[in-house]
Design a protein that fits this description.
With 382 residues, the chain is α/β, with parallel strands linked by helices. It folds into 2 domains: 252 residues, Type I PLP-dependent aspartate aminotransferase-like (Major domain) (Aspartate Aminotransferase, domain 2, 3-Layer(aba) Sandwich); 109 residues, Aspartate Aminotransferase, domain 1, CATH 3.90.1150.10. The protein has a 7-stranded mixed β-sheet, sandwiched between helices. Strands 9-10-12 form a 3-stranded antiparallel β-sheet. Strand 5, helix 6 and strand 6 form a beta-alpha-beta unit. Helix 2 packs parallel to helix 7 and helix 8 runs parallel beside helix 11. It is globular, with a radius of gyration of 21 Å. The structure holds 4'-deoxy-4'-aminopyridoxal-5'-phosphate (PMP).
Amino acid sequence: MIYLDNAATTYPKPLQVIKSMDLAMRKYNANPGRGGYKMSIDTSEEVFKCREKISKLFNASNPENVVFTLNCTSSLNIVLKGILNKGDHVVVSCLEHNAVMRPLQSLTQMGIDYSVAKVYPKDNDATLDSFRKSLNERTKLIVCMHVSNVWGIRLPIERISAMARQYNIRVVVDAAQSAGIFNIDLKDSNIDYLCLAGHKGLYGPMGTGIIIIKNANDIRPIIEGGTGSNSISMEQPNIMPDKFESGTLNITGIIGLGAAIDFINSKGINNIARHEYNLVSRLYEALSNMDHIELYMPKPDLNYFAPLISFNVKKLDSENVARFLSNNGIAVRAGLHCAPSAHKFCGTLDRGAVRVCPSVFTKYSEIEFLISLLKNKRLHNL
Ligand code: PMP
């Protein structure tokens, strides 16, 4: 199988991730922070090492501000439901994933409302302006993706968060699609809550997510329970990361994620990105010469787009194209990619689009094979 669905989750995972998880289940299989025996202490240390690696990668102020979750969806739910109160207003981009839109929609039942800021691909001034114009005196949060999982559009989160600071508004960034591709520096930006998936561009296992919380004081935990700390108290501890990490953690996954961070550091994020841009550039050039292919965005370049391409074959439903590719050994994702707003943006709500997203492991020959299939006469007769 040629796997080009890396925006959903990366595959294959690096060998060192697989090996570290095998070792974790043999050697670090105790509840960290709960027992005074050696395996529990060793497990705590391994988990802390992973926090440190993540903290360093994103230049966070303290490894204790790194909270482990199940996935980026749980990170976003924890932040949105932990901060917002009746009467609060939120601004989101018009491209957000359902991981943001569904929690927000359910919060409207509690008297929270939101506005949608339009995004202008390649025009960051206009995008910033539309965020500014969407604010009102009740705006508490801006929730914004860094990269669209459908169109690859890169949003100017540094400028948006700097603008928010002027109005004392908190910023949540959904970096599910950008972590591991673009550098994100928390010291250098005004991002208050960075929500991440461990299993996409960070190359960790599924079932890993992260929130990096700058200031934990004004966010309530939505899940409370045993943390191994201050057990005598019926109150959830206020210390980080315990405040947001009740119950047994996914230790095997977290240790795998630590090995994955070592992997991307050894490759270099910029080198990974360069490889992927080269692949999508070749694909974009080939597709733009095919009359039957509809492209919706300009050629992906580093400043404005992530290395992924979504397209349609004229007249065909995206699911049919994906099935044709799957029958020929290529895995891509069609449909709406859990982001109907992004499809509405390009007028593709009715048939979705075919998304191609390479990884550091994707070979040029695999992209050439995809191109040859898309030229194939049989595709036109579907
Ligand atoms: N936000 C974006 C932009 C995404 O692409 C995704 C995954 N498709 C998510 C959030 C949710 O991530 P997870 O699957 O880790 O919950």
